[in-house]
Design goal:
184 residues; alpha+beta; two-stranded antiparallel sheet; 2 helices; rod-shaped
Length: 184
């Protein structure tokens, strides 16, 4: 490779490769910048997905707690299910809306507030509806019931734009109501 000196004594290459290293370094910097921005964007997206999943789970747990609360009221005989069934049959849409609710005046109980480390995670509200009389709901595998009530629990969170729902049935397996008292 031939080299020559200019008037000031600087060495120049004769092959015309001046500045090639600068271009190579610039391309490497742009490539690394793009990789860095992509990694940061992927990390932020992963954090949003994780946060959404955590909120969904909290809402799900709230709904499941509402279902358990309704079952517990029925099992402990805290409420008379026949009276609840009769009230539901006389309500609009055959449902007692906000049967368990934090502020509703006609609710039978106040929901629990699910907390962790003194932070409120979620709460719930429960609606109870008249379901069937003398016929178990299809697919439940239950027979010989007097009546069934449909329970819908909704998990709720402060500052959340979504909710989660869980549904199930409360069964009265005794012969208390042979004709459902003419309700149906």
């Amino acid at each position: 490779m031939l080299r020559r000196l200019d008037q000031r004594g600087f060495v120049h290459s004769a092959g015309g490769q001046g500045g090639f290293a600068l271009i190579l370094v610039m391309v490497a910097l742009v490539t690394l910048t793009i990789l860095g921005v992509t990694a940061i964007t992927a990390a932020q997206l992963d954090m949003k997905i994780t946060q959404n999943m955590r909120h969904h789970k909290q809402l799900q747990y709230g709904a499941m707690a509402g279902m358990d609360h309704a079952r517990q009221l029925a099992e402990d005989d805290t409420v008379n299910l026949l009276n609840v069934y009769t009230e539901a049959s006389q309500a609009s849409n055959n449902c007692l809306v906000d049967w368990i609710h934090p502020t509703a005046g006609g609710s039978v109980d106040t929901p629990l507030i699910i907390t962790a480390n003194t932070m409120t995670l979620s709460t719930y509200r429960v609606d109870v509806c008249q379901a069937v009389c003398n016929q178990p709901p299809a697919g439940t595998g239950v027979s010989n019931i007097a009546y069934a009530m449909d329970v819908l629990a909704t998990g709720e969170m402060a500052n959340a734009s979504a909710n989660a729902r869980a549904g199930g049935f409360l069964f009265a397996r005794t012969g208390l109501v042979e004709s459902c008292n003419g309700l149906l």
